[in-house]
Amino acid sequence: MRFTVEPSPAGGYHVRLLGSDAPLSHHDTEEEAEARRQAYERGAGEARGDLVDLPDGSEVLVRPVRPDDKPLFVAGWEHFGEESRYRRFMGYKAALSPRELEFFTELDHIDHEALGAIDPRSGEGLGVARYMRNPDRPESAEAAVAVIDAWQGRGLGGVLLRRLCRRAAGNGVRTFTASLLTGNRSMLALFERLGAVKTRGFDGGVMEIDVELPVDEVGVLLRSAATGHVGRAGERQHPQ
Question: Which run of H or E residues covers position 44?
Fold first, then answer.
């Protein structure tokens, strides 16, 4: 990946991924923008995380999302079709703004956590699972999963969601909540493999659900086995 620093029409400077119109971040000074550009370049060259085998034999790296992952989000956005974007945001969306990129990548990893999957060969971002704790229900958190079109149906969403479940449980989350389009059966199936699903209501084609998280990994595996979705996915630590 290559990056440029350009003046912003509104003042200050933008850092852009070369070939993309959407800016990655906005900075008050050129020095700040240049420092961030160098950080993006360093991050793009790193290949750290857990190496995970998917059921189809492919491998992905999985790790927590970092602030310097903004380029992966911008590049990955181009690999989501309109339908995938519509299902994830429940509306049509052309691009991610710098403010949204900041929200998606600058996390405290306790109340807001996200795990990303990366192709270990190309370094491209493949998918993300995240949760955000509900302020009014601190033992619950809103969860969502997004996988680029070419990697859907290969078990990646389930891998990310199971790992996210373990991170959430370790931070005191006992229930995932989610808002799904009623026609999004694949996402509903992912949550059903994770835990007991309770529908809280419907509103304008959107279904609100609660998912009770299992107390341990055995519970996840037993539920996946009961629905016939246990694959050969395994995990091992990638050498640093």
Answer: helix 30-44
- The DSSP annotation for 184-218 comes to -HHHHHHHHHHS-EEEEEEETTEEEEEEEPPSSHH
Tell me the angle at which helices 156-170 and 185-194 cross, rounded to the nearest 10 degrees: 50
Report pLDDT for 174: 95
Residue range 166-178, pLDDT digits in tens: 999 999 999 999 9
**Whether pLDDT at 236 is above 50:** no
CA 120 to each of CA 54, 93, 150, 167: distance values in angstroms, whole numbers, following the listed order: 13, 28, 16, 22
pLDDT at 219: 46
Q: Which is nearest to 64 in space by CA: 2, 17, 108?
A: 108
Q: What is the CATH number of the domain that holds 226?
A: 3.40.630.30
Stated length of the chain: 240
**221 CB-near residues (< 8 Å, 6+ apart):** 230
The rounded distance, in Å, linking the Cα atoms of 84 and 101 is: 18
How many Cα atoms occupy the beta-carbon half-sphere of 62 within 13 Å?
29
- Which of 47, 27, 39, 232 shows the shortest CA–CA distance to 123? 47
Residue 30, in any domain of the structure: no
Provide the domain count of the chain: 1
Q: What is the dihedral of CA 123, 240, 154, 83, to 10 degrees?
A: -40
